[in-house]
Structure formats: structure tokens, C-alpha cells
Design a protein that fits this description.
Length: 272
């Protein structure tokens, strides 16, 4: 789940200028700054720029501009957690009755909190499954509810559900080993979930699956659905998947903007 420490950050554009070094996750703007620092009068130029520049749009502002004035917006959120903690699209959804969509969350106790937080509105679909590369059952690991009462943990501790047990201990240490729940979950390819819910168009996709993001993103049929905007977490991706994600989205006509550990992909709207 994308949390506050990942959202409240300055945005930076990724452009084609550095695609030759496409496994470098440093934003283009940061690399340009490093080159400019050696130039004369850099300090004066920097002062003038900071004095007159406008603040960067937030994730939410860019999403709203990307979907434009559509009378209805359909979203798909993969890895919804409880739909509240650190969720960058929660406020957009609850404040707009014309937004409908699918929440996908495999962990049962989080899924129950998710349904409670959003209520029984008919505009929402809730799927208690994990998105996998194939249909079947697979072992999933997550932090038990008991850990919250017995350990001093960050609020995002229950956002670490993963197909990899080591992901939890890598993030929170070996103290977590006794509190890791291991259980089989139903897995479905993304298209199966979309088909069984009769999805014909998608405007917004949000993926937060603790390092599984590219495997979900690569299942999305961009030529069929043409989502206006895609938000996914990149910092846990292996380098080769990070490169593949960028190439996939650039090739489909998306502009990429980095917000800390997340990337916002905006389709064909370079003024956003």
C-alpha cells in the first residue's frame, strides 16, 4: 500500500533523454541538476528559479487533470489494503459519486476493513483475491493482527503482504518471523477479474503489490483499455522489471512522473 511517506514528495519527470541509462532510477531532473551545478552563476539561477517557480502538482491533482471532465470514471486498484491508510486515491473516490471501480485485496482481515471503510455502495466491486500470473492457489505471507498489539511497529506494517516471506523481514527485521502468517490465497490473472466483472473501459489503475507491480502492470491490455492514468510502486522492482515497465509505458504513449517510490504514468497529455 502506498503510504504517506511515499506520497508527500516532490515530483520529477522521467523523459526519453536518459533511456540509454534506463535502469538508473534517479529522475531526469536530478541528473540535469548535477550537470548544471558546475556551471558559472548556477547559484544565482537556482535562487531565481526557486523564487518564481510554482509548486508541483500533487498526485491527486494530476490524476484529476488526466481523467478530465469525464462524467464517469472507472478505476481498478490492485493491492487495496484497507482502502484508507496512506491510500492516494481514497479521497478522490469517496468525494466523487460518479467514480466506480474494483478493489482487489487478498488478505481477509484487511479485505473486511476495506469493505467496512467503503460501505455497501453499489458503485464498488470488491475482490478478495490476489493477482497472479496464472489461475490457482499460491502461498501468501503477511503480518498478523497480533503483531500490532505486541510490537512497536510503523502503521504501514500490515501493508507488506507478499508472495515472498523475506520481503517482510527485510523491511521490519527478523523480529517479525513469529508474526508472519503463511496461508494459501486464490490467485487470478488480472484479465480474469476484469472479464468476470464485465469491465469494458478503465480510466485509472493503481497498483501497489510490494514488488509484484510489474507482473500486474504487464498483464494490463493497454491497447484495449487505454487508461488515462496509471500509478504504481517502483522502488521494490528488480532493475530489469523497472526498465521493462518504463519501456512498456513509454511505448504506449505515457509520460512518466516520479513521486518518491511511485511512478504516475499519464497517457498522451503532456500539459499535465
Amino acid at each position: 500500500m502506498t503510504n504517506a511517506r511515499k506520497c508527500d514528495v516532490e515530483s520529477n519527470d522521467y523523459t526519453d533523454s536518459f533511456m540509454a541509462d534506463s535502469n538508473n532510477r534517479q529522475p531526469t531532473s536530478d541528473r540535469i541538476k548535477e550537470q548544471l551545478r558546475g556551471l558559472p552563476l548556477y547559484g544565482v539561477g537556482k535562487w531565481i528559479y526557486r523564487r518564481f517557480r510554482k509548486s508541483d502538482p500533487t498526485i491527486q491533482e494530476r490524476i484529476l487533470k488526466a481523467v478530465g471532465d469525464k462524467p464517469r470514471v472507472f478505476f481498478v486498484q490492485v493491492g487495496s489494503n484497507d482502502g484508507l491508510q496512506g491510500d492516494p486515491i481514497h479521497d478522490l473516490i469517496v468525494s466523487r459519486d460518479s467514480w466506480t471501480g474494483i478493489f482487489i485485496e487478498p488478505i481477509d482481515f484487511l479485505f473486511q476493513r476495506l469493505r467496512k471503510n467503503y460501505g455497501d455502495a453499489e458503485r464498488f466491486i470488491f475482490e478478495n483475491v490476489a493477482i497472479g500470473t496464472e489461475k490457482g492457489s499460491k502461498t501468501f505471507y503477511y503480518v498478523s493482527e497480533k503483531a500490532r498489539t505486541e510490537l512497536d511497529l510503523p502503521y504501514w506494517h500490515d501493508q507488506l503482504g507478499s508472495f515472498e516471506k523475506s520481503h517482510i523481514t527485510n523491511m521490519l527485521g527478523e523480529q517479525m518471523s513469529p508474526y508472519i502468517v503463511e496461508e494459501p490465497v486464490e490467485c487470478l490473472p488480472l484479465q480474469d477479474v476484469l472479464d468476470r466483472n464485465g469491465v469494458e473501459g478503465i480510466d485509472l489503475v493503481h497498483i501497489d503489490t510490494e514488488g509484484f507491480d510489474y507482473k500486474v502492470l504487464s498483464q494490463l491490455d493497454l491497447t484495449r483499455y487505454h487508461p488515462s492514468v496509471i500509478l504504481f510502486e517502483h522502488h521494490l522492482l528488480p532493475d530489469e522489471e523497472f526498465v521493462a515497465a518504463r519501456k512498456l509505458l513509454h511505448g504506449a504513449g505515457y509520460r512518466l512522473v516520479q513521486y518518491g517510490n511511485d511512478i504516475l504514468a499519464i497517457r498522451g497529455r503532456f500539459g499535465i
